[in-house]
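Input record, target 12 of the design panel.
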């Protein structure tokens, strides 16, 4: 039966997608690259679809993404079955994608909870909340924190709350802004990366359509703590979670540039699968969000 042959080779498909190449997949599986290639070709022949894009890095096609999701679900359920039937304390892999701001703030409560769960392992990837859902669709993870409210296929979605951000800078930068050295179009900005357009979204919300000046200095810093340090040092301004900045505003280390805030709605999207560990993680996510989000 075609399906049985396909299932025996799903581990090879996962290895190719996770490592990004046939050679790296071969090394992780302890076989030759030609063996990996043969298994993928056999799987594609069995399914009747191309499953892997032969690019650099290698990636799953839409048909391949369906099998990748299936393989990860099977892996989770297999690990849980081992825990229940044999009492093994093997790690149950819970792969989650979350935005950096949440990971550095309210998600810390979830990490504390996870430390008390026997047999659970967390594999966390960081991605902007506006782009994380595509990783769930590709099968790269089993759950995401996202700003997307519409559930993707095979998943369920729950509203978590709103993460509130304030526009802040150092006192020295605020003085330069007030003196007219900068305006909103030219005020230097610190952001996580090219996908992070939160300050543009905020200014469009408050000022109408906003386009920063081509001459504006930008600092791309892929670290929550790094962005905060850059703002404190006076490199530029940024949108930073309210829970972090209020103590720094109170002691005079930061200045709020505008009285308004930006509220980002967050949702939890996860597989529709019966899993004790995933349910436990979901409960912890909801508890942390209820305590820390608006």
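The sequence produced for target 12 reads:
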């Amino acid at each position: 039966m075609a399906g049985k042959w396909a299932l025996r080779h799903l581990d090879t498909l996962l290895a190719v997608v996770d490592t990004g190449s046939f050679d790296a997949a071969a090394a992780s599986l302890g076989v030759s690259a030609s063996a990996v290639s043969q298994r993928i070709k056999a799987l594609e022949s069995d399914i009747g679809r191309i499953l892997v894009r032969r690019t650099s890095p290698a990636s799953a096609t839409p048909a391949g993404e369906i099998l990748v999701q299936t393989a990860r679900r099977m892996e989770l359920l297999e690990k849980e079955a081992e825990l229940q039937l044999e009492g093994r304390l093997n790690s149950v892999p819970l792969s989650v994608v979350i935005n950096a701001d949440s990971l550095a703030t309210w998600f810390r409560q979830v990490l504390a909870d996870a430390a008390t769960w026997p047999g659970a392992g967390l594999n966390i990837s960081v991605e902007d909340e506006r782009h994380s859902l595509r990783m769930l669709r590709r099968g790269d993870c089993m759950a995401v924190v996202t700003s997307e409210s519409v559930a993707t296929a095979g998943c369920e979605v729950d509203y978590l709350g709103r993460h509130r951000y304030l526009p802040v800078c150092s006192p020295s930068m605020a003085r330069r802004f007030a003196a007219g050295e900068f305006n909103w179009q030219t005020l230097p900005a610190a952001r996580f990366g090219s996908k992070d357009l939160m300050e543009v979204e905020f200014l469009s919300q408050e000022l109408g359509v906003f386009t920063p000046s081509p001459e504006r200095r930008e600092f791309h810093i892929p670290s929550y703590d790094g962005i905060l340090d850059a703002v404190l040092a006076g490199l530029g301004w940024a949108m930073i979670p309210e829970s972090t900045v209020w103590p720094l505003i109170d002691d005079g280390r930061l200045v709020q540039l505008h009285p308004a805030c930006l509220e980002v709605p967050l949702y939890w999207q996860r597989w529709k699968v019966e899993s004790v560990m995933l349910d436990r993680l979901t409960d912890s996510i909801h508890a942390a969000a209820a305590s820390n989000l608006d």
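The CA atoms of residues 161 and 293 lie 5 Å apart.
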